Amino acid sequence: MLVLSYTGRRLALSYTGCRLVLSYTCYRLILSYTCCRLVLSYTGNRLVFSYTGCRLVLSYTGRSIK
Question: According to the lineage, what is the superkingdom (predicted)?
Answer without folding.
Answer: Eukaryota
